[in-house]
Prior knowledge:
Layout: H1 9-26, H2 29-45, E1 48-49, H3 50-57, H4 61-73, E2 77-80, E3 83-86, H5 89-99, H6 103-107, E4 118-119, E5 122-123, H7 130-141, E6 150-151, H8 152-160, H9 166-175, E7 179-182, E8 186-189
Antiparallel strand pairs: 1-3, 2-3, 4-5, 6-8, 7-8
Amino acid sequence: MSAAAAPSSRSRSAVLSSAADVLLALSNGRRLAILHAVVELNAQVGPVGLAQLGERVGLDARQLAKEVVRLTEAGLLRRDQGALTAQLGPLGELGEAVAEFTALGRTVPPDSPLRRFLTHGRVTDLPKRPEDLAALAAALADLLPADRTLTEAEVNELLGQAGDDVARLRRLLVDLGLVQRSGSAQYRRSAAVAS
């Protein structure tokens, strides 16, 4: 997937489907043990054959073949002329691709300098520079609808998609005038921010 292009519904579906395949493949302890053994054996001797792998993990040929097929289909193993090599790169690629589907991953362009303040598409710490803080706050404000008043719980739910410290994020938006607070807990995105 191109980093600069916004993912289409179809590509989002494909990425999430691939991520599900990988996670399901790794959710089985036997397959996880096989992948771990292949990684270790690759580091020691290079590509590994099924017989050597079977001895290492204590599985008969039939059980091992079944699990190797599942790991290969998930893209975690590559099989060349009967020898297996672990493919861990897809794990990182899928992690990065899935992060693009977070609320801020969709709001902040991939080439934006604001990305350095996000971890897996979420705010982990606020920027120190006022310009960066204001730009990140504007991206957070974009998560709120511009056409209606929200309760504090609704604001918390929307900002919770972007970070864990929702109270801090909410206060930031109010302090910078991007969100107006009225009454005890009514919030509305400022008209100047609404796109």
